[in-house]
Amino acid sequence: MHEFELIKNYFQKLSKKSLNTLNLNDDVFFDKKKNLVVSVDTYVEGTHFLNFKKPDLVIKKIIRSSISDIICKGVKPKYYFFSASGNKKTFSKSNLLKISKSLNKEQNRYKIILSGGDTTFSKRLSFTITSIGFANDIIYRNKAKVKDDIYVSGNLGDSYLGLLILKKKIKLNNSLNKYFTNQYYMPNIKIKLADQLKKFANSSIDISDGLLTDLEKLINNQKLSYELNLKDIPISKNLRKVLKIKKLSKVDFISKGDDYQILLTAPKSKSGIINRISTKLGVKITKIGKIQNKSHKSSIFDTNNTVITVKNKGYLHKF
């Protein structure tokens, strides 16, 4: 059973169809009357991060990935709650100092404030982050329209290559190793776009589990499909270089998750304002495809306009 089957079969009815819960089919809770936006994420060692050998970097990763849920809704995070389960080894004085310093740096970077949390003993290390923001409106999932253009911020695939390096599945020079592992631990989330997204986006989601997996979440309750062009999906110069040297395929890197970029749909008429905002903020926003009606099969095309078969669309939470 995967995550959405579990929610639908056992928990969706508990939301009592409250509008604020968004039918448990979005990344946030939104109380429009109180302008309150809340997201919750849990991170488990061995699943969401490899180990705790670099606690300062792990903390940066989980904070950034957590607040990206709110950012992609067009909202800036304000407060966060930090809960942790671990033992004397993981929460040694040395590690606790590193955790505290990292949290302080992330607070200063993103203008957020630690507001509470919990700690408990456990043999397995895990963290839960609750993020809170305030807004009178958000950008929802499942609001895409037929013929909407599909856009993504930043670049995709760097984090996955960083993970491969950490797992010692690929060897590069020291400079590239550092670049890609930093992309894994410190995703370049686009908080600058939080105040701008509502000007053009019909729907949005952050890319956590993979481009294709998250795109399917974006339209999962709509009679829609998508068409993507592989050549347009943005990757960094460094990743392009490695793919060429190692003779690897781009398609195997664009939907592996942990990118924490913003995936959105917008009407064609908004292309001008998107380009202007992208230039003004210095934030890369790339058109990669189009939303179609359900009569079209969701597809990704190569440079020869041939449909590509993607074996792994991204990460699925299975139980």
Structure characterization notes:
- The protein has 319 residues and is α+β, with helices and mostly antiparallel strands.
- The protein folds into two domains: 7-134, 60s Ribosomal Protein L30, Chain: A; 149-301, PurM-like C-terminal domain (Phosphoribosyl-aminoimidazole Synthetase, Chain A, domain 2), CATH 3.90.650.
- It is built from eight helices and eleven strands.
- It has a six-stranded mixed sheet with strand order 7-9-6-10-8-11, sandwiched between helices. Strands 1-2-5-3-4 form a five-stranded mixed sheet, covered by helices on one side.
- Helix 2 (55-71) packs parallel to helix 3 (93-110) and helix 4 crosses helix 5 (174-185).
Helix/strand layout:
Blueprint: H1 3-11, E1 29-31, E2 36-44, H2 55-71, E3 77-86, H3 93-110, E4 113-121, E5 126-134, E6 149-153, H4 158-166, H5 174-185, E7 203-206, H6 211-218, E8 224-229, H7 237-246, E9 262-266, H8 271-281, E10 285-293, E11 299-301
Parallel strand pairs: 3-4, 8-11
Antiparallel strand pairs: 1-2, 2-5, 3-5, 6-9, 6-10, 7-9, 8-10
Structural class: alpha+beta
Number of E-state strands: 11
Shape: globular
Q: Which CATH class of the largest domain is shown?
A: Alpha Beta
CATH fold description of the largest domain: Phosphoribosyl-aminoimidazole Synthetase, Chain A, domain 2
Which value, in Å, is the CA radius of gyration? 19 Å
Largest sheet: 6 strands, mixed
Approximately what portion of the residues adopt beta-strand conformation?
A: 15-25%
**Uncertain spans, ≥5 residues at pLDDT below 50?**
none
What is the string of SSEs from the N terminus onward? HEEHEHEEEHHEHEHEHEE
